[in-house]
Amino acid sequence: MTFAIDFGTSNTVVTRWNSATRQSEVVLLPGLAQQISKNPPLVPSLVHIQDAAKGSVQVGQRVRDQGLDISSDKRFYRNFKRGIGAQIQGFLPELDGRELSFEQIGQWFLMTVIQAVQAQEQTLDDMVFTVPVDSFEVYRHWLGQTCESLNLSQVRMLDEPTAAALGYGIQQEETVLVVDFGGGTLDFSLVELVIAPNRKPLGFIVRWGNKSLAESSSQRPQKAKVLAKAGENLGGADIDNWLADYFQQQQGIALNALTQRLVERLKIQLSEKTEATESFFDDETLESLTLKLDRETFEDILQRNQFFDRLDGCLEQVLQQARRQGIGIDDIDAVLLVGGTVQIPAVRRWLKTYFPDPKIRGDRPFTAVAEGALQLQQGIEVSDFLYHSYGVRYWDRRNRRHGWHSIIRSGQPYPSPSPVEIVLGASTDNQPSIELVIGELGNEDARVATEVFFEGDRLVTRQTQQEAQQVQPLNAEGSGRTIAKLEPLGAPGSDRIRVQFEVDRDRTLRITVEDILTGNTLLEDRPVIQLS
């Protein structure tokens, strides 16, 4: 049986494909999932470490049921997904003689959820994970390592906005903009869904509204082509921090786990009401805490933190990519909303300044991603492109520092239409080998980086201006960067090896290396790294 997991910063959703009804369904995990009448059974992305040395943890709703999420306990973690693969300022405390990392905490969380699914469902053969569109390769690599110990026949990954487009369902060939705005990330993705000609329909689709799969048309898209992407490390967790800062400034309220929980509840209330109040009474200390906020003040806080400016910038990136392909804003047939943050009325009003109201759809904000990921199992073909550029490192003698030469540009489809070739030479006498460090290059035009760091007990993000392009080296450690053993030894002054780069349909970068001096092929179609 095929399952899909949408691992979110605030909540996690597990779905399965029901072959009898031919539709997806959300899996209820008793004890882990919260059961709220108007929402599907979401698993809160929370971890409380009981014994770090033994890897014993509590996750999900169990953490809230025991009140562990409102105590300033160094064993409690939320928003940890944001720290996976990020360059952290600050440190995680050592617990029970074990050093911690966000990757380890995330692994404990996911493994607990997956083990609960395995115990309940018995047959779990195929798993699809969704990942943020702007994640660097280290995040995907971490997810792959997490799954290595699982006895699964197949593990696949799909970016969250594309999954959301498939989850909402399209009746005809349409171009849709997916706005995936959850607890930790803002992702935009422009996706074209196509019904392939002269092919038998593979299943059912969901049209807008409350129709089920079985009630809808017998045709559905058979190909999802990603046209444009943009993303940023911005989400509901940032809004919670802004609200907590506001109450600290206005009422002198301490910044702690309890405050974070109360302001999160205020934010959720203000999606439905114009005024909200949250109170807490401590039975032991007899202390009480009351927070009040109205929607006008809430939206003013968003404005002061450049919230809407950042939304504008992200959307403009997508529209620029679309215009290069001859697609204007009027050519977008629908805007699909995903994630808890899209429930904020101000976000919907912001969207209406760009798109007419009938095009904006938001009836599946929590489940569309996980449900759409299941479509891979049903024969959907996803045609994607590389979101980042990739390059090789070289020594810039003039500036006396390393630079990066781009070999694969952002936007290139995969598999590669043709190989890219470069020629390299030795730099010293009697050089025994040639090494090549490959890096994932950030947006060449962007000089804004997001730092993830600790401020007291809170995990927060901050944008900073960068002088140089952001680069994530992919094979800088170990022996993986050695691509050629030179026999005879190399000498400077002449070209020595020819390197061809290609990206296969699985997004794996492969290289072929030829020794120009001897004519020997040193490496042939060797996989180097999987790209994002």
Question: What's the layout of helices and strands?
Answer:
Elements: E1 2-7, E2 11-18, E3 23-26, E4 43-44, E5 46-51, E6 56-59, H1 61-65, E7 76-78, E8 88-89, H2 102-121, E9 126-131, H3 137-147, E10 154-159, H4 160-168, E11 174-181, E12 186-194, E13 223-232, H5 236-251, H6 257-269, E14 275-281, E15 288-294, H7 295-304, H8 307-324, E16 334-338, H9 345-352, E17 360-361, H10 368-373, E18 381-383, E19 389-396, E20 401-408, E21 420-425, E22 431-435, E23 438-441, E24 448-455, E25 458-465, E26 471-473, E27 482-490, E28 495-503, E29 508-515, E30 521-530
Parallel strand pairs: 1-9, 8-24, 9-10, 11-16, 13-18, 16-17
Antiparallel strand pairs: 1-2, 2-3, 2-4, 5-6, 5-7, 11-12, 12-13, 14-15, 19-20, 19-23, 21-28, 22-27, 23-26, 24-25, 28-29, 29-30
Helix pairs in contact: 2-3, 5-6
Protein described:
The structure is a single chain. The chain is an alpha+beta fold and 532 residues long. The chain is 22% helix and 35% strand. The protein contains ten helices and 30 strands. It has helices spanning 61-65, 102-121, 137-147, 160-168, 236-251, 257-269, 295-304, 307-324, 345-352, 368-373, and strands at 2-7, 11-18, 23-26, 43-44, 46-51, 56-59, 76-78, 88-89, 126-131, 154-159, 174-181, 186-194, 223-232, 275-281, 288-294, 334-338, 360-361, 381-383, 389-396, 401-408, 420-425, 431-435, 438-441, 448-455, 458-465, 471-473, 482-490, 495-503, 508-515, 521-530. The strands form eight sheets. Strands 1, 2, 3, 4, 9 and 10 form a six-stranded mixed sheet that branches. A hairpin with a 4-residue loop joins strand 11 (174-181) and strand 12 (186-194). Helix 2 crosses helix 3. The longest helix has 20 residues, at 102-121.
